[in-house]
């Protein structure tokens, strides 16, 4: 699969693979404590750190994961980042990671980019299972995955430590048959 050709399109958004230079766009939005609160990194972030993040994902693309940046078609505004990481071709599974810049919250963009990457995972990568993990207490994120049909598997107790604080997270999954079946049912 040639990376440059992987463009995911939704009704309102274009998603293309992360590439060198994107750190300039991402950096001011990633540097928001409200975004970092429910992610493993912490603020403040530097432009250098963000550039390293992008470069690493460019290198891993197609082997360890698929990393996209989303822009609004109409305004060209940056909307957020979405990926499938922990990708295992052998086991046919991967995990979704995402965030939406604060100015675009509660407009349905989170669901839109998550739906696009899950679709890509099941249809193009032929995955059997897609995971979605979220810190306990992240109501918007949990609500998003539930709306997309994610099934709660359980809570990983004290799974992370961030700033000396133990954090548990909830693991959701969607299986191939549930996603493809759901789409077929909708089409009827
Ligand atoms: C989680 C996140 C991606 C949601 O993005 P979003 O674009 O606002 O999400 P959507 O507008 O698609 O909303 C999805 C559902 O979540 C719910 N939701 C969104 N924000 C909410 C909030 N603040 N409180 C309660 N529910 C909320 C809504 O019920 C919505 O469903 P509905 O409007 O169709 O009924 C965004 O809040 C974010 O980037 N947060 C910080 C980083 C993060 O937590 N990432 C996820 C890590 S697992």
List keywords for this structure.
Aminopeptidase; 8 strands; 8-stranded mixed beta sheet; binds coenzyme A; disordered C terminus; globular; alpha+beta; 188 residues
Describe the protein.
This protein is an alpha+beta fold and 188 residues long. It has one domain (3-187): Aminopeptidase, CATH 3.40.630.30. Helices cover 34% and strands 34% of the residues. The chain contains six helices and eight strands; from the N terminus they run ββαααβββαβαββα. It has helices at 22-30, 33-36, 47-60, 109-123, 139-147, 176-187, and strands spanning 8-9, 13-17, 66-72, 78-88, 93-100, 129-135, 151-162, 165-175. It has an eight-stranded mixed beta sheet with strand order 1-2-3-4-5-6-8-7, sandwiched between helices. Strand 5, helix 4 (109-123) and strand 6 form a beta-alpha-beta unit. The two termini are 31 Å apart. The relative contact order is 0.13. Residues 184-188 have low confidence and may be disordered. Coenzyme A binds next to strand 5, helix 4 and helix 5.
CATH fold-level topology: Aminopeptidase
How many helices? The count is: 6
Biggest pleated-sheet summary: 8 strands, mixed
Radius of gyration: 16 Å
State the total count of DSSP E strands: 8
Shape, per Cα inertia axes: globular
The CATH homology group name: Gcn5-related N-acetyltransferase (GNAT)
Small-molecule binders here are: coenzyme A
CATH architecture descriptor text? 3-Layer(aba) Sandwich
Beta-strand share of residues: 25-35%
Helical residues, percent:
25-40%
Poorly predicted runs of 5 or more residues: 184-188
Structural class: alpha+beta
Oligomer: single chain
